[in-house]
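Hi V.,

You were right to ask for the full record rather than a summary. Here it is.
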Amino acid sequence: MNIIAAVDKNWAIGNKRDLLIRIPADHKFFRQETTGKVVVYGRKTLATFPQAQPLKDRINIILSANRDFQVKDATVKHSVAELLTELEKYPSEAVYIIGGESVYRQMLPYCDVAHITKIDRAYAADAYFPDLDQMKEWQITADSDEQSYFDITYEFLRYQRFDG
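Predicted structure:
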């Protein structure tokens, strides 16, 4: 299973229910990686999408503890156990965990590849991704050249989990 996020140098991912910054090349990378695949995210992340609608051209699965929560064009699961059962229908490599903070934390143990856009700047933030650099089982296996967007530099990193 994959997990995908854009993080700042402190592994922050958001502030006040929004992304820290919108980088066009990061959005393009996200679309290329997830189109035609299964995306898993939480209710608060859905609220940040255009018109709070599920993403087009993907199978959308939302993790929400609220049993009354329903969304047109998406499947809603109410626990990690229910979600994992649902995900058995799909090839693991076609599943992408896309946020937010609580879904990332709950699902990271089930993922073996992390696609991280690492932004070389610290932002004011209230939501964070787990710091993979502090977890010995996660190692960088691919990186891009440094990219820039105006005065912001970033790179695309691929982490893989190695157990044992």
